[in-house]
Amino acid sequence: MFALFRTTSLLAATVCTGLTAGLFYAYACSVMLALGTVDDRTFVDVMQRINTAILNGWFAVGFGGAAVFAVLAAVLHGRGDGRSVLPWIVAAIVLYGVMFVVTGVVNVPLNNELAAAGEPGGIADPAGLRAHVEGTWVRWNIVRTVASTAAFGCLAWALVLEGRIPSAGAAG
C-alpha cells in the first residue's frame, strides 16, 4: 500500500507539473505572440483580463499541486527502495522552485503593475506601460517554461525509475 501511495504522489506531481509547463509553453508559443500583434490598449486590456481570469481553482490545483505533490513524493521516496528515484524528484523540485521564484519576483509584479494602471481606456500612456512590461514578461516566461518543462522531464524520468523498483513481495 505504501508503494502505491508513493507512486501516486509522484504521478500527481508529474501531471500537475506538466500542466503548469504546458500553460507557460502556451503563453510562449501562442498567447504572447498573438498579443504582440495588437495595439497597446488591447494588449493591456487582454493581459489584465487574463491575469484576473487565471486566478481560479483549476490553476491553483496545477500550480500549487505540483509543488505539494513533488515534496510529498520526495518525502515518501526518502527511504528504502524509493531512494534511487529521489535525486530526480529533488532536481524537479529545484527546477520548479526556479519557476516559482521567477513567477513571484518578475511576472506577478509586472501583472500587478498592469492591474494598478486601471481601466485601459483611462491609461495616459498605454504604449509606455506595454514597453515596460511586455519584453521582460515574455523573456522571463521563457525561463519559467524551460524550468517547469525540465522539472516535468525529471519527474517523468522518476516515474520510469519508479516502474523499475521491484514490488514488495515480488519474486526476484
Automatic annotation (TrEMBL):
Q: Which InterPro entries match?
A: Anthrone_oxy
KW Membrane (keyword) present: yes
Please list every transmembrane segment annotated in the UniProt record, as residue ranges: 50-76, 88-110
Spell out the Pfam families in the cross-references.
Anthrone_oxy
* Keyword annotations of the record: Membrane, Transmembrane, Transmembrane helix
State if Transmembrane helix is listed as a keyword. Answer: yes
- Recorded superkingdom: Bacteria
Q: What is this protein called?
A: Putative membrane protein
| Source species of the chain | Kitasatospora atroaurantiaca
